[in-house]
Amino acid sequence: MDTVCIKDKFGNVRWFLGEDIRLPPIIENQSLADRLSFINNFDLRPDDVIIAGYMRSGNNWLHQMIYMLLEGTLDPPPLFGSDSNVNLEFATDTRQVLPPVKPRALYTHLLFKDLPKVVTEKKVKVVHITRNLKDVFVSFYCLAEKFPLRPYYPPWPEFLSTMLDDGVWYGDVFDHVTSWEKAIDDHPEHPFYCVTYEELTQNGVDQLENIDQFLETNRGRPFCQTVVEKCHINNMANLRLARDTESDWTMIFRKGVVGDWKNWFTVAQNEEFEEVTFASDSLIKVCKSLPHTDDLSLLYYNEHSRQ
């Protein structure tokens, strides 16, 4: 397996599968070339749904709600079982996704260009989720504390500085977000639905009803409202999960709140974040494309982008 070690500027060890794509090193023994070929050639139904976004952006939460829309059920989905994996880049011959006998909800943290080629050929619908990156960093750091394999868990200031430099798994988070923004702009013919974590938190029923219409599942507002209540963060960890024999995947659920970054960032760290963010015209473009709510600080949108 093409596992590489790249130290951060503080000397902390980071392990990746592949120096460029930087997949988490938790995939079964398989060369990087074979892994990328497996992903590229993975077959999908035209009515499958891909939920995409950077890690800790609400992917699992959104996936669960979309699964319920597709199935017309309030039963939770399987997640990481040996024959019920839902993460595209972790699928293998021994950790298979659900069989293609009906529409499936799958999620990924990959870039659009790295998705299976049939996504564009069959115009598979993609729901893309973003989140305030400050909250992403905090949530990612808390996950890293619990991660059982090849942990990367330096002190918080070093972790934050590394995320601002070149990131951890899946690479530079700023490149990730701007790459997706460009892909969406460059493919106007492709069916995308874009939503933020903050919008789901503030107006979950409205957003899920819009997604219901986008997917043409036609479950209706009462069903959407019940799904949102069922998938509240207080219920998520208690719902039925398919677990493998090594890991308790309830660790992927945390607080489910907006603005927790304020309990972690110092004034200096917040200023450093903003300095990095607004050094790039492409990042400012992404900021300006997002809705703004004063209390939520959506993604990295702040006073600078309104001047």
Description:
There is one protein chain. It contains twelve helices and six strands. With 307 residues, it is α/β, with parallel strands linked by helices. It has a four-stranded parallel β-sheet. Strands 1-2 form a two-stranded antiparallel sheet. The radius of gyration is 19 Å and the shape is globular. The model is unreliable at 242-247 and 289-307 (pLDDT under 50).
Largest beta-sheet details: 4 strands, parallel
Rough shape?
globular
**Oligomeric state of the chains?**
single chain
Give me the count of strands: 6
Order of helices and strands: EEHEHEHEHHHEHHHHHH
Helix proportion range: 25-40%
**SSE class:** alpha/beta
Write the layout of secondary structure elements.
Blueprint: E1 3-5, E2 15-17, H1 32-40, E3 49-52, H2 59-71, E4 105-108, H3 118-121, E5 125-130, H4 133-146, H5 156-165, H6 173-186, E6 192-196, H7 197-202, H8 204-215, H9 221-230, H10 233-236, H11 267-277, H12 281-288
Parallel strand pairs: 3-4, 3-5, 5-6
Antiparallel strand pairs: 1-2
List keywords for this structure.
12 helices, single chain, 307 residues, two-stranded antiparallel ribbon, alpha/beta, 6 strands, disordered C terminus, four-stranded parallel beta sheet, globular
Concise overview:
With 307 residues, the protein is α/β, with parallel strands linked by helices. It has helices at 32-40, 59-71, 118-121, 133-146, 156-165, 173-186, 197-202, 204-215, 221-230, 233-236, 267-277, 281-288, and strands at residues 3-5, 15-17, 49-52, 105-108, 125-130, 192-196. The protein is built from 12 helices and 6 strands.
